[in-house]
Amino acid sequence: MANLWSKVPKYEFFSFLFITVVAIALRIVWMLKIPNAPIYDFATYHEIAVNIATGYGHTYQGDAIAFQGMGYPTALGVFYRLIGDTSVQSGKLFNLLLSTATLLLVYPIFRKLAKSRKVSLAAYALIAFLPNYIAYVNVLGAEVFLAFLFAAVIFLQLYGFNKWVRYPLLGIFIGLAALTKPVFLVYPVVVAAVHYLREKNLRQTLILLVSVTLVMAATVAPWTYRNYVKYEAFIPVSYNSGYVLYLNNNDNNVNGGWMPLTDAAASPELRAKIDAILEHGARSEKVAYELDPLLKAEGKSWILAHPLEFAKLGALRVQATFFNGAWDIGSWAMNELYPEQPFWTIQLERDLKVFRAVSDAWLNGMNTLAFLFVLIATIPVVRSLFARERKLADGLVLPTVNVLYFTLIYFVFEGQARYNFPVLFLMAFCAVMALGTIRSGVKRLTD
């Protein structure tokens, strides 16, 4: 990090400083001025965090729970305990600190990927002022926390200090990310793929893969042991993967997203088993860990029996994640703004619609450009897999492999707008690179 700022031109430093200060100020204003309260999953996170802070452990409505990753509510609960306050506003302060830390990691990442000050600053401004990244300081969900962890993981892959320190740190941060979103349990394979494509050294790649995987496993292991003690079952992180897979892949699903369990297609036998586990509605799905193996088997069976329908739903999930605008800001980050309030005016409604239009255009445009970059970059990435001496630059391989990884995850499991959050800073970089290519092409045509 110190090398980054050595001999840096004043215009770059002051540009970075200006963007950062304004971006943080916008987050503070949003947090203080835009009314919002946690609902659905966010209310669950807050309740668990409060229970952790007040000595009741990782529980929900009096029961031990591992329905979702424990990373964010545990970190939030520890923060509540440290500051001695469990209010929602304190949770938003925690998000503000995480969002600021993410910004401080993202710019060095861009400088390493692009090696161009102008490209780095353009991508940094694009993500620093992205409406989603500003608004989500209001949301007590895993998104801001996971974006910070993921940025740290990317940073550790790019900056090559002592591997005896870097590899364990990488394993720890991947482990923390996995405890937040279990899809990161397989992320060491992504790290290894990126390393091999950059270095083409199989021995070093295997050392990296084994080292990172072992440290990640050690980071996750205490929680896995806790789950075994609580549920007498092997549950590495959470027991909702089968639930999510089944709800998003069944005969009654038409949009590729979440649906109520009661609405999902089920045979009479399956429905009877579900009802028995849930005690005919008396037990919450969030504590019914026995559902997971049952629904996972059903989801896998449906996918294998309906590959074309699965592909259709997968395409819908990718569209919902990356090309469905920023509707989630209104639903999750400003949900206490509604027409029934006394301060509501026509002018406010008009302004909110303009904000939504700008946010939609910003996000959809950025992601469209980013996917164009990734689709084109996939060609040399695939070729490099079969060309032993063909090494790829960081700026090509790292964003491409990571975006493809997240896209595959959302294609299989579940897609919605807020799930794009952790990878948006890489999408911003890809978008700026694509714009630069388009600009160069236009310039050649006009010369």
TrEMBL record:
<dbReference type="InterPro" id="IPR038731">
    <property type="entry name" value="RgtA/B/C-like"/>
</dbReference>
<dbReference type="GO" id="GO:0005886">
    <property type="term" value="C:plasma membrane"/>
</dbReference>
<dbReference type="Pfam" id="PF13231">
    <property type="entry name" value="PMT_2"/>
</dbReference>
<feature type="transmembrane region" description="Helical">
    <location>
        <begin position="206"/>
        <end position="225"/>
    </location>
</feature>
<keyword id="KW-0808">Transferase</keyword>
<feature type="transmembrane region" description="Helical">
    <location>
        <begin position="12"/>
        <end position="32"/>
    </location>
</feature>
<dbReference type="GO" id="GO:0016763">
    <property type="term" value="F:pentosyltransferase activity"/>
</dbReference>
<feature type="transmembrane region" description="Helical">
    <location>
        <begin position="394"/>
        <end position="413"/>
    </location>
</feature>
<keyword id="KW-0328">Glycosyltransferase</keyword>
<dbReference type="GO" id="GO:0009103">
    <property type="term" value="P:lipopolysaccharide biosynthetic process"/>
</dbReference>
<keyword id="KW-0812">Transmembrane</keyword>
<feature type="transmembrane region" description="Helical">
    <location>
        <begin position="93"/>
        <end position="110"/>
    </location>
</feature>
<protein>
    <recommendedName>
        <fullName>Glycosyltransferase RgtA/B/C/D-like domain-containing protein</fullName>
    </recommendedName>
</protein>
<keyword id="KW-1003">Cell membrane</keyword>
<feature type="transmembrane region" description="Helical">
    <location>
        <begin position="167"/>
        <end position="194"/>
    </location>
</feature>
<feature type="transmembrane region" description="Helical">
    <location>
        <begin position="122"/>
        <end position="155"/>
    </location>
</feature>
<feature type="transmembrane region" description="Helical">
    <location>
        <begin position="361"/>
        <end position="382"/>
    </location>
</feature>
<keyword id="KW-1133">Transmembrane helix</keyword>
<dbReference type="InterPro" id="IPR050297">
    <property type="entry name" value="LipidA_mod_glycosyltrf_83"/>
</dbReference>
<feature type="transmembrane region" description="Helical">
    <location>
        <begin position="419"/>
        <end position="438"/>
    </location>
</feature>
<keyword id="KW-0472">Membrane</keyword>
<feature type="domain" description="Glycosyltransferase RgtA/B/C/D-like">
    <location>
        <begin position="76"/>
        <end position="223"/>
    </location>
</feature>
